[in-house]
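S.,

Sequence below, as promised.
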Amino acid sequence: MSHALSIMNPFFMLVCCAALAQNERAVMPVRLPGTSLDTSLRNEADRAIRQSVRWLAARQQADGAWGVTNRVRVTALVVTALAAASCPEGDSARARATLWLGGTAATPLTSLGDHAWRLLALSLALPETPGRHAYLHDLARRAPPAATGASADDRRLWREALSQAGQEAPPVSESKDEESRALLAHAAAAWPPALDGTRALWRLARMINRSAGGQLLRGQTPLDWRNHMANRLITAQKNDPEGGGFWSAATPDRQLAETAYGILGLLEL
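The prediction came back faster than expected:
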């Protein structure tokens, strides 16, 4: 790879962010086959997304990052949510965060999940440029081994990040397909599920969309899971007196993450 495209070269990231500010790369929300939300609920969901984007943008740190204990993962998660939401209120914050996140790319990460979130965020946030594919390819090959303590969720996210980055993703094993089907069957049998937090709702919605074509069935009966999840997420969102909305959690980092997962969860519906 030439020096101009080197993952160590901050100028490449500056060029990308400058282009991003001038020419936004459209990112379509992941809304896969299934019953769509009622119109009024869709409007409420879109409003909740915009409120959360405003809240996250207002809490960005001066250097462009978010978080305290794991800034790479939290920032990557927020960038992913802002990029997927495609709200103008988050454009400036997303551009600054993309520059910061790109500046960490030369630092190896020991967690496959952290690396997957970083790759996914940059794949969504960087505009189409001649060097984008080579840059993401170089970043993808720096991944830690998937077998080193990576959870099934992290491995699923890694495959999705590779696909979004235009890289070859490892095939899903038959046992993993069976695991997904078993989890979905359990969720349908126990519907509505007793899930705690926006991450759990996002995780289930994501699995339904990717492993079941957007439908959750109890026997042969489709369940209205989208409207149910949307109502739960919208009802749980808190209004901040200073502006915006968020999903609460025990620590500042978890609150940032829960709010980003809330956005991503609503975008799955």
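Residues 39-58 form the longest helix (20 residues).

Coffee later?
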